[in-house]
Amino acid sequence: MEIVEVGPRDGLQNEKTLLSTEVKVEYITRAIAAGVRRIEAVAFAHPARVPQMADAEAVLAAVPRLPDVSYIGLVLNRRGLDRALASAGVDEVNYVLVATDEFSQRNQGMSTAASLAQWDEVAAGARAAGLRATLTVAAAFGCPFTGEVTAQHVAGLVAAAQTRPDEICLADTIGVGVPRQVAELVTEVRAVAPGVALRAHFHNTRNTGYANALAALEYGVLALDASTGGIGGCPFAPAATGNIATEDLAHLLHRSGTDTGTRLAELAETGTWIADQLGITAPAMLGRAGAFPPPATA
């Protein structure tokens, strides 16, 4: 299972403390040292609306460049893609399509239908630049404003995308999903987009994020988003809390017999470190409890 580290983007975007570019780059560097190889490093969002991401270009200019590390930039519209292309620092773009109109208006200032139309433009621009393009369906498990979102509705949005994504990410943006929904969503989306790699994005708002991660593994999802330290959330969703924690997810997967290529001790240290930079206690548990079995002592 591949873990996509989203702490530098989704983790930081909902935190009140604004970190320096240097601290963000160190956060990313520490994640790489812990074995992470896909990192959602920045969002190309309007700096007045998401000030935590205002230095996206500066971050990408300073991060380590390794042949096996892929940097992802989140974009919400064509303007975001133009910034991503101008920065010449991203390897992939992640386009967010919100499943419901009210949340889409609050998050991106447009309807879901208008956002879907922009996906085709963004995907074409990314492909022309040689970049991989992921379509993330946000609020795929439920919306804080309009309630339930069905798997059939999400699959219909995916089917309506004229440009085939390289990857589809199903996002439980507000942490309301349960494993049954994971199974339904994966089944419905796979039926309309056969052969497209699936990724999932879970928040632990109601303590179901890790159960959902195991369900995604069972149903053949190839990548899971997580945030080192378990920090973050969506600034446009009420009572949003952090993503599932990278270190806790890696521990769960490793103990379940699934390799992630990451090192637990370094992940846990990074989670504690970034929480200290933010002046908070990390929601992640591994940094407090430690891995099991504990490392052998000399």
TrEMBL record:
Q: A single GO molecular function, which one? A: hydroxymethylglutaryl-CoA lyase activity
Q: Which residues form the Pyruvate carboxyltransferase domain?
A: 1-268
Q: State the name under which the record lists this protein.
A: Hydroxymethylglutaryl-CoA lyase
According to its UniProt entry, one GO biological process term is: L-leucine catabolic process
What's the domain of life for this entry? Bacteria
Checking NCBIfam families in the record gives: PRK05692.1
* Keyword entries, A-Z: Lyase, Metal-binding
Supply the source organism for this entry.
Answer: Catellatospora coxensis
Q: Tell me the protein family, please.
A: Belongs to the HMG-CoA lyase family.
